[in-house]
Amino acid sequence: MVKRIEDVRSRSSERCPKCGAPRALLAKFCSQCGTKLEDAERRHVTVMFCDLVGSTSLSMRLDPEDLRDLIRTYRQTCSRIIRDAEGWLGNFEGDGIIAYFGYPKAHEDDAVRACRAGLRII
Fold first, then answer.
1. Do 16 and 23 form a contact (C-beta atoms < 8 A)?
2. Does domain 2-9+43-121 have CATH number 3.40.50.740?
């Protein structure tokens, strides 16, 4: 499943580059030293979620070690394909993988990259 999320705000830094103090949400100046902080930018981000279909039934039929090896291979293959498409791996949740396209580096065709990566994974 590929879902397009519009107008996601990303900050270029979570801390002040001068003093290292935590940055308040949407702050334009550092609350500790007063340094001007870079403005947030708007960008389009495409989020892809991959799930190993039938993993529950597989867990009933396979030995735990064999299932672990299968899921490890699945994750490695998906990770390589996502990285090749210049996506960013967000999280592994069980047999699911969340990937972002357009973060941290944006491309004009991030949605297309996500679709192509999804098709390669299938």
1. yes
2. no
Which strands sit side by side in the sheet containing 2-10, from one edge to the other? 2-10, 41-51, 96-101, 88-93
Asked if 81 and 90 touch (Cβ cutoff 8 Å), the reply is: no
User: Alpha-carbon distance 40 to 28, whole Å?
Assistant: 9
Which pTM does this prediction carry? 0.67
Domain assignments of the chain as residue spans, ordered by start: 2-9+43-121
List all residues 6 or more positions away from 45 whose beta carbon is below 8 Å from its beta carbon: 5, 8, 10, 100, 101, 102, 103, 110
pLDDT tens, N- to C-terminus, the chain (122 residues): 444 444 334 444 578 888 988 887 778 888 889 888 876 667 889 999 999 999 899 999 999 999 999 999 999 999 999 999 999 999 898 889 999 999 888 899 999 999 999 999 99
Cα–Cα dist 33/28, whole Å: 12
